[in-house]
Write a structure and sequence with these properties.
Number of strands: 6
Organism: Nibribacter koreensis
Low-confidence stretches: 1-25
Radius of gyration: 19 Å
Strand order of the largest sheet: 1-4-3-2-5-6
Largest sheet: 6 strands, mixed
Structural class: alpha/beta
CATH topology: Glutaredoxin
Shape: globular
Protein name: Thioredoxin domain-containing protein
Mean pLDDT: 86
Keywords: Signal
CATH class: Alpha Beta
Length: about 170
């Protein structure tokens, strides 16, 4: 009895102290369909959305994610929102995407788009998009601003696009 009480006390102390072990919460990565993503694509708000399409298996995608994380931090408190939209298979959420997010301690919103028929939705981002990754959509519907780029982005390019195309 004393042993169970001691274990319970240790568990509770660790839990309330914010320990990071097997008891720590996994990051939330919602699996969504296109209609849920379209709320951002069609949002009438004056928020500039930077929607990066990536996958854990895409080396240039993985290399540019820290740039988006830095951007999210730089514009914290301003009407700018970074969305990292994974195009990994939904079946890989627990074994690839969530561990990826945990390992890199991503703070931006991460979503997994579960739409395996790419030809049915890539035009929603840009009719000229070939489907190659990485790809990024910069969007502010209130200001009628939209810019799509289908290549890896450097911090300098991100800043250039935001300052010249969106006056941020």
């Amino acid at each position: 009895m004393l042993r169970k009480s001691l274990l319970l006390c240790l568990f509770l102390a660790f839990w309330f102290a914010g320990g990071t072990s097997v008891f720590a919460q996994s990051p939330s990565v919602p699996v969504i369909k296109l209609p849920q993503l379209q709320k951002y694509l069609q949002s009438p708000s004056d928020t500039t959305y930077i929607i990066n399409l990536w996958a854990t298996w895409c080396k240039p995608c993985v290399e540019e994610i820290p740039h988006f994380e830095a951007l999210q931090k730089q514009y914290a408190g301003k009407p700018v929102k970074v969305l990292l939209v994974s195009l990994d298979f939904a079946k890989d959420l627990d074994k690839k995407v969530i561990p990826f997010v945990q390992k890199r301690q991503l703070k931006s919103t991460v979503l997994l788009l579960d739409e395996p028929d790419y030809n049915s939705w890539i035009d929603a981002f840009d009719p000229a998009w070939s489907g190659a990754l990485p790809a990024t959509l910069f969007l502010n519907n209130a200001k009628q601003q939209r810019f799509f780029v289908e290549k890896p982005l450097t911090p300098a390019l991100l800043q250039e696009y935001l300052s010249t195309k969106f006056s941020l």
